[in-house]
Amino acid sequence: MGTTAKKQVILISRTDRLGDLLLSFPAIRKVRELFPEARIIVLIRRYTADLLYGQSFIDRVICLEDFPLPELIQEIRQEKLDFFIALFTNELVGKIARASGAKYRIGPLSKLHSWFTYNKGIRQKRSHALKNEAEYNLDLLKRLPQTEVTDSLYTKLYYGDEHAQYVNTWLESKSITERQKVVLINPFSGGSAKNLTLQQYLALGMFISAAVPEAHIVYTVVAQDRYQAIIPALSAHQSLFINDGSILYLIALMDRASLYIGASTGPTHLAAFMHAAVVAVYPRILNQSPIRWGLLGSDKITYIQPDVPCPQKFGCKRSCRYYDCFHSLNISHIAEVCQGYLK
To answer: What local confidence, expressed as pLDDT, does residue 189 receive?
Structure first.
């Protein structure tokens, strides 16, 4: 009798933010294409887990918060990994990778611990921002025993009937008809990049409402945001969508939107993945630029950036003469760009 070859077991780790996980989807899907019979596990943060809804190319999801660290390591070791692929690394991920039992550990050689962790590591220098984060992730797969890794930069997102029904009920409650164009404005971000002020976003909403009165403006927030100042500023054909549940409700709403406006943050990446037209406000800082963190999925994207010769590479400094550069952005001009997508 012949013996059945053992299925390879591959763990892919991406334990940072929402947008970072989205830009890791092409690499995760590519692993499935390269290893169609393998068992593929992803290690992520719990608050990003809903993004994996309906994704058939993943066999198991493990969240960092699911177990205390010793039990998490034991759970991973029980999977008898062949490969541990870290698309992002820090001290914790490095510790898990070293203890995982994986024969091959692939990851970016960027921090001191990484040189002692990844025996199949790659020196990438992502901070030089020469390509998109998704492409850097795909580059790591060249350490796998395959002949070629081609770029494949888009993965469809899914949501359930319950999420669609929730959004439809909410739209009906606001008297938003199927014929109306819905404009989503997300005025808040997680603080990973500079943003317009709430007052600037409210002014932008007023400009768009005046120019396109048939459109309905929806400000999207989560319960933790300081959104109270939006409520008294709402005018006719403007509403506030407070999502205190799954991110899939927001994704379902994005599927109805004609235009999304927001900063360089996770929901902006979501909107592009849902093929919405996107007006995205990005800094000029090299390592926060659209070159590194550009959007995937939509072919209707406009990046808005301050028109200054930014000298920074990694983040804003108060000593910078252009520290308040976002105040110089012309809101009426941004509104004109938005109107172009609503004609």
So the answer is: 87
- What percent of the chain clears pLDDT 90, i.e. is strictly above it? 79
- By CB neighbour count within 10 A (0-12 exposed, 13-18 middle, 19+ buried), where does 220 fall? buried
- The partner residues of 90 in beta bridges, in order of sequence, read none
The pLDDT mean for the chain works out to 92
Both structure tokens of 283 = 């800094």
Integer-rounded Cα Rg, in Å, for the chain is 22
Give Cα separations from 122 to 7, 142, 308 (angstroms): 26, 9, 34
Contacts (Cβ under 8 Å, ≥6 apart) of 133: 20, 23, 126, 292, 293
Mean pLDDT value across residues 222-226: 91
CA proximity to 305, closest of 286, 337, 280, 271: 280
Span 295-323, pLDDT tens digits: 998 999 999 999 988 888 888 888 888 88
- The closest alpha carbon to 286, from 255, 311, 257, belongs to 311
Q: Are strands 277-281 and 301-304 parallel, antiparallel or unpaired?
A: parallel
Distance CA 54, CA 70 (A): 30
Task: Pick the closest to residue 147 from 5, 36, 34, 40 (CA basis).
Answer: 34
Residue range 262-275, pLDDT digits in tens: 999 999 999 999 99
| 142 three-class SS | helix
Report the pLDDT value the prediction gives residue 1, as an integer from 0 to 100.
47
Q: What is the pTM of this model?
A: 0.92
Give the pLDDT of residue 137. 95
201 CB-contact burial (10 Å; exposed 0-12 / middle 13-18 / buried 19+): buried
3-state SS assignment for residue 162: helix
DSSP state at residue 5: P
Residue entry with tokens 């669609």: 164
3-state SS, residue 228: helix
DSSP letter assigned to residue 273:
H
Listed in sequence order, the residues at least 6 apart from 299 whose beta carbon sits closer than 8 Å to its beta carbon are none
d(CA 191, CA 303): 18
